[in-house]
Amino acid sequence: xxxxxxxxxxxxxxxxxxxxxxxxxxxxxxxxxxxxxxxxxxxxxxxxxxxxxxxxxxxxxxxxxxxxxxxxxxxxxxxxxxxxxxxxxxxxxxxx
Length: 96
Ligand code: SF4
Ligand code: SF4
Known about the structure:
By secondary structure, this protein is α+β, with helices and mostly antiparallel strands. It has helices at about 25-30, 65, 80-90, and strands at about 10-15, 35-40, 50, 75. The strands form two sheets. It has a two-stranded antiparallel sheet with strand order 1-4.
């Protein structure tokens, strides 16, 4: 990549509960932009777990979450995280 090429910004990210992961690789196999890979590390059960690589390719589509049989991973779009934050900051009006 040349120096003046715009750097890519990730549209989302993933959360991984690594101790639940069984290393089946479904999330890695089905990630559309191929931005998941196994960690070099092992969890306590002896399995490699997924990490983002390269992180900037993640769209937050959550297909990894749909395919994981153990709910050990899920993806979130950054715009949804921001919306949740804003909603939480908006006071709720209760009519009398
Ligand atoms: S959220 Fe989508 S793009 Fe990101 S790692 Fe999961 S499947 Fe891949
Ligand atoms: S699909 Fe779930 S259990 Fe399988 S490797 Fe991914 S996170 Fe681990």
